[in-house]
Amino acid sequence: MTFGANSTTDDVLAGVDLSGKRVLVTGVSAGLGVETARALAAHGAEVVGAARDLDKAKRATVEVEKQAKFGFELVELDLASLKSVRACADALLDDGRTFDVVIANAGVMATPFGRTVDGFETQFGTNHLGHFVLVNRIAELMRPGGRLVNVSSAGHRRADVDLDDPNFDRTPYDPFIAYGRSKTANILFAVEFDRRHKASGLSATAVHPGGVVTELSRHMPEGAVQQTLARINAENAAAGWPPFVMKSVPQGAATSVWAGVVAEAEEVGGRYCEDCHVAEVVDAGPNVLGGVRPHALDPERARALWLKSEEMTGERF
Q1: Please, which residues bridge with residue 208 across strands?
Q2: Is residue 179 annotated as a catalytic residue, yes or no?
Q3: How far apart are CA 182 and CA 127, in angstroms?
Q4: Angle formed at CA 40 by CA 31 and CA 47, multiple of 5 degrees
């Protein structure tokens, strides 16, 4: 079965029985995380949802609870605090139950300049380093054949990681450059995790959900999403390309679900996926054509980021 940009979570999971599978999804208090959890739980997976604000997550996941066939539970996780990340990992390790899939979905976008509790630039610290520590700490809970799915973005085209100045100590801060760096980091983390764990039967992939209006854009000024869309479509028209079409939340979450439980591991391992397929490598500017930029799949960059991430978090994996 071939899926594409318009496929929804229920399309890609049609006829799929996930009974016996256990999945961790981060960021289940809104948007893509809630829909990802709902679709997996409705098709029989036991889902653990992680969120910073558990009260908000409880309200957001009423439908997930309702549709879950074999259980849905919430755990507390603030990715902007390594203390919280470690506590979450410890609780999951103490519990001891294993996972078939970990979907690192939570994130922030285009925030004003700020720092996490541990002093990291907000977007790099939250989107990458928080997940880096969580996933590596619980990697031993992943069953053979298990899979990591990092939710990245076409925003990775805006910037490679800066391993010399990851916290913008010397570089002038730009919210979208910072976002781009963090999203490139999500892909590079998947590349290196996949390389390191392949021999033990684990794989990792990164996905771009597509353009979806969710709470992710809450830090952008009012009207900014519409202005950005108008600019992109003017550029596309001038270049003779079709207009950029926004996705619904079920369409946006479809690639995470497809890459996590439908696609073959060897097809997606160490790769970047979009619109429910593996993306081509495209060496072009940050326009909104499909594809992944070469800098995000560079194995040497991936290794270097892993070592830098260990140094920054003070943990060796």
Answers
A1: 274
A2: yes
A3: 6
A4: 90
CA neighbor of 50 nearest in space, from 89, 100, 8, 93 = 89
What six digits make up the tokens of 257?
């679900």
Using N-to-C axis directions, what is the helix angle for 82-95 and 130-138, rounded to 10°?
A: 20
**Domain definitions of the chain by residue range:** 9-219+247-312
Average pLDDT, the chain: 93
272 is catalytic: no
Q: What is the pLDDT of residues 196-232, one digit of tens each?
A: 999 999 999 999 999 887 665 565 666 766 676 677 6
Q: What is the pTM of this model?
A: 0.93
Using the predicted structure, report yes or no on whether residue 93 has a pLDDT greater than 80.
yes
Active-site hit among 81, 152, 203, 309:
152
Question: How many residues can be counted in the chain?
Answer: 317
Please state, in angstroms and rounded to a whole number, the distance separating the CA atoms of residues 231 and 209.
20
- The CA distance from 120 to 133, in Å, is 14
The residue from 153, 179, 182, 247 that is catalytic is 179
Measuring CA to CA, which residue among 2, 4, 74, 7 is closest to residue 37?
A: 74
Active site residue 309: no
List the CATH code of the domain at 9-219+247-312.
Answer: 3.40.50.720
Percent pLDDT > 90 in the chain is 85
Of 183, 256, 272, 309, the active-site residue reads 183
Check pLDDT > 60 for residue 288.
no
* Rounded Cα–Cα distance for residues 164 and 252 (Å): 33
The CA distance from 29 to 218, in Å, is 14
Name the DSSP class of 253: T
